[in-house]
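ok new one. same drill as before - structure tokens go in, u give me an amino acid for every spot. 97 of them this time. try not to just spam alanines like last time pls lmao
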């Protein structure tokens, strides 16, 4: 269930309020969906995000992002290597991904 700083999108996923304070919780978990593939060797360069490749040529990056500046840094990195951003969603921390 979404808290007062978040809302659910049409897919039932939590969408972050950009004004919410990341630091209170030690960061937030995000799924970043992009068009294109990178192998898991890129995980360190992407601040430790997990890489999940999809059969349709897309990829989901998942992990804890400490604050809004780190989120923007990750998105900028993806832009610099010319990956098309499809969606960014805040998600609950799963027991396993």
């Amino acid at each position: 269930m979404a808290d007062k700083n978040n809302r659910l999108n049409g897919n039932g996923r939590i969408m972050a309020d950009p004004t919410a304070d990341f630091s209170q919780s030690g960061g937030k978990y995000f799924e970043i969906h992009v068009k294109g593939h990178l192998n898991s060797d890129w995980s360190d360069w992407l601040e430790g995000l997990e890489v999940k490749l999809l059969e349709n040529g897309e990829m989901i990056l998942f992990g804890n992002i400490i604050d809004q500046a780190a989120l923007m840094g990750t998105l900028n990195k993806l832009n610099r290597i010319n990956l098309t951003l499809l969606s960014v969603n805040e998600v609950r921390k799963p027991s396993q991904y």
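The first helix runs from residue 68 to 80. and btw The mean pLDDT is 81.
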